[in-house]
Design goal:
The complex is a heterodimer of chains A (121) and B (106). Chain A is an all-beta fold and 121 residues long. Chain A has no helices and eleven strands. In chain A, the strands form two sheets. In chain A, strands 2, 4, 5, 6, 9, 10 and 11 form a seven-stranded mixed beta sheet that branches. With 106 residues, chain B is an all-beta fold. Chain B has strands spanning 4-7, 10-12, 19-25, 33-38, 45-49, 53-54, 62-67, 70-75, 85-90, 97-98, 102-105. In chain B, the strands form two sheets. In chain B, strands 2, 4, 5, 6, 9, 10 and 11 form a seven-stranded mixed beta sheet that branches. In chain B, strands 1-3-8-7 form a four-stranded antiparallel beta sheet, with no helix packed on it. The radius of gyration of chain B is 13 Å and the shape is globular. Classes of the chains: A mainly beta (121), B mainly beta (106). Chains A and B meet through strand 5, strand 9 and strand 10 of A and strand 4, strand 5 and strand 10 of B.
Chain lengths: 121, 106
């Protein structure tokens, strides 16, 4: 059974840092690209970042570029998101999501349950 | 960036109703649209990919259609477990973007 379990969320002051983790199991982690998606309170889903299976390509939403860093450790079946220079508008539930592909179409076929990041003084 | 506009933002329906949610892209994206169901406190769930392909394990009452800029998610007979928020998402180009969501309420 595919499982994605996020951790590392919490309360942090503006300007602070946090590192989120996503532990993957039930599939060959090193074969899949992975993503982070967030949902601010009362808002919709927002894609945050993407990393290919071998970390050869990485992309970020403009809203987090230069502040967040995505990485992965295939030996540990883990995905990470380093959050720096946090702002109040970064307050959200952060989800990790596996990217699957079929015939050139890409989609998030498995998601974790999320970890809450609250940025407040 | 490609904007995805969903309508309605919310709707009230009863068990057994037929429900249709629409999503419009700001530019043509062929069939690069996916649909997700999200219930508070749970992981989002993939329903439809490539505009009309039903994800394995998803009930057949869910269906998707459309191409280019206009897309539709239809629930043929609403069940109690279907009360949730639904999102479209484009996978044509980065940044990946979602619609604003449609909350389906009793």
């Amino acid at each position: 059974e595919v499982q994605l379990v996020e951790s590392g969320g919490g309360l942090v002051q503006p300007g602070g840092s946090l590192r989120l983790s996503c532990a993957a199991s039930g599939f060959t982690f090193s074969s899949y690209s992975m993503n982070w998606v967030r949902q601010a309170p009362g808002k919709g889903l927002e894609w945050v970042s993407y990393i290919t299976s071998s970390s050869g390509a990485i992309h970020y939403a403009d809203s987090v570029k230069g502040r967040f860093t995505i990485s992965r450790d295939n030996a540990k079946n883990s995905l990470y998101l380093q959050l720096n220079s946090l702002r109040a508008e970064d307050t959200a539930v952060y989800y990790c999501a596996r990217r699957a592909a079929t015939n050139g179409y890409y989609f998030f076929d498995y998601w974790g349950q999320g970890t809450l990041v609250t940025v407040s003084s | 960036d490609i904007q995805m506009t969903q309508s309605p933002s919310s709707l009230s329906a009863s068990v057994g109703d037929r429900v249709t949610i629409t999503c419009r892209a700001s530019q043509s994206i062929s069939s690069y649209v996916n649909w997700y169901q999200h219930t508070p406190g749970k992981a989002p769930k993939l329903l439809i990919y490539a505009a009309s392909s039903l994800q394995s394990g998803v009930p057949s009452r869910f269906s998707g259609s459309g191409s280019g800029t206009d897309f539709t998610l239809t629930i043929s007979s609403l069940q109690p477990e279907d009360f949730a928020t639904y999102y479209c998402q484009q996978s044509n180009s980065l940044p990946l973007t979602f619609g604003g969501g449609t909350k389906v309420e009793i």
